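Consider today's protein:

***
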Amino acid sequence: MEFGGGTGTQLETICRRMEAFQKQAIVSVEEPYEEYLKQYVTTIESLSNACLDIVYSGPIQDYYGRSVEDLRAMKAYPERLQDRVLALHVLYHAINIFDQDMDPQKNLKQAASAMYTILKPGGEMVIHMAGHDEVLIGAVSLKCLESLFPNTKENFKIKYEVFRKQLFEGGFVEVLNTSFPMFTAKMHCEEVTYLNVLSTIEEVGASASVPCLHGLWADQSPFDVRVLQFCIDYAKSEGYKHGLYRDSKGMWCFPIKEYYITIKKVERE
């Protein structure tokens, strides 16, 4: 099952690799955006070695505080436990920095536990996240929030501190083992740093603007052009302090840090 499936491009890549080994995939997906979900369905239906089971249009918050039976009745969970659960760039949306009463520890536990619950014994949850707080994107986002949405600045810092301690440094294992005493969670985290290369400063600003709005899955307000413009201007004037530079071909380059996390669900003896 994939949470926050987007348009299905990442799972399509996985399925095409599986095809080389003559492996089949039964896919369930949660994705709040209807247009993305339609594209996801089209993508999976175009594959010869994959078929769809549950297709749920709703946010991860719908899973908070509900039983497995309730979620299956809502057609938000498949009937069978899953070999793999994918959460690729989705856990940012579990915590809304615009909520002044946010509880990031609780929200992360609710989201990750909902994913862990549907895993079969021996199955793995795969999480892919960026360490935005450590690099250019995080620095620009923080300055933007400080300027345009000052009440969210501390929440942004707290959110990424929770990600760091619980996911990147492995603290969440204890949470899962306490919540699921019949199982042992075995976590592995790999940190990867690579160079992001973009052709224009506007693209750099657009990349940096995304974390400013993470968590606003239900927001229907018009796009706030101030966010994009601030991020472009700040990247242009201050980006060099955070590793931004132009190479000999005129391309804009800056480091990105990402984390690949697997959590295996093992039955206790």
The CA atoms of residues 91 and 111 lie 7 Å apart. The mean pLDDT is 91.
